Amino acid sequence: MKLFKSTFYIVLLLSVVLLSSCKKWLDQEPQDGIIKENFWKTKEQVLAAVIGCYASMQGPPAGVSDRALPEYLFLWGELRGDFLTPATGITTDEQDVINVNILPTNSLSRWGAVYRTINNCNTVIEFAPAVIQYDNTFTQAQLNAYVAEALALRSLMYFYLVRSFGEVPLVLKSTSTDEDISPIPKSSKEAILAQITKDLLTAEAAAAISYGSKLYDTGRLTKGGVQTILADVYLWDEKYTEAIAECDKVIASGKYGLVAGTGSWFNTVYGVGNSNEGIFELQYDAQKINTLYSLFATSRRRFVAAGKVLEDVYTLDYVDETNADIRGVGAAVKASDNSIWKYIGTDNYNSRAAADSYAHWFFYRYADVLLIKAEACNQVNRGQDALDLVQVIRTRANALAGTEQDLQADDTEGISAYILDERAREFAFEGKRWYDLLRNAKRNNYQNLNVLLQVVAETVSSDRQQSALAKYRDINSHYFPVNTNELLTNTALVQNPFYK
Residue 77: is its pLDDT beyond 90? Predict the structure, then answer.
């Protein structure tokens, strides 16, 4: 993980040890009384705990059998989309999600990986303020900035949960001992989004503008990162004016830009990471490799890109093969075998070895800000502004004429579809596709449900299509069930309506 270098690994190790796992209903990571008494004394320890929040996303603690968080985020964001084709290693649970045959026993409905990070954030929020009384070099501004990071990261985790499960337990207190773990009922989607927004606004006011280098500014949440998450939340919540305002703050900061689509563009953005357009990336290196590699690169890989990705999403120039959308061949997909390339390759079709699987997980890039703003502008009758922003993205990418649309500024529905298509090209296999489809489908009281129904027609096996179409017409089916194990261990939980 590139964020942690040399002696910084010692701080990270300390934090991870202190936040060791306890297998309870939320799979949270408690601290015992000895840790509370002896650990929370210095600002360096607070920083260690903050870094532990980020580290917890890279994989489960020792002794816990689970996927790393980015694997969940990839599968939640892509399996129900239309860009993946199963390969030989696909699991039954993954195939069931594609076929809209999700049961409460499906392992992909486990949420422990997210709640582990939430509990780490809760621990910082709860215990860091007391450190000021022990460390007279620890300023209020430093404390506020650390708490802002924890609030923002917790908000991002809940944003994934509310989009994936709908209603979930809203846990705002850390688990300090086993006795603290008690049954907690689910909160409504509205309550969760309200808490997310409240916390992000608090974090925005106190978050650091910079940590002194692009390495740290990309691997930790800065003010720009908080504003980007908030813009995305507002977009989901159909608060378009507010979304535009947050995007404008990020744009006006001058801290970010699009990497020129020439030369080593792919290696700069994806191969190495921490580029000028990176806003928040989960970073990896030789000491902690990205587990996504095994999904796409081994002889038992689980997924390849659907044929439509190159042929229809990016399109090809059959007259001049050098004329290509830079985001397609050699970026999203390796043309010879439809390998998903962002996590296993570098420039010029050089494959990474498994031991060199350092590709970052991208939560947000600057292109997100521009396309979030475009989508929001389109919904407030600023269609030309939306089209202009889309064109900025397309120009950088050398998008082909076959994907260009000639739309009038007042064609709100047409521009919405155009932006959705452009997001597909820009963020292919970055865990965003399902959330983009669902956001567009549910807008204006599910005015565009057909967006989801079309996916079924393309991805679900023919013998299951009618069943899948019937399920998707019930909007409760758009969210995962509560996993059976969670229901057994948390007696306050009730199953999501569709799965009762």
Answer: yes
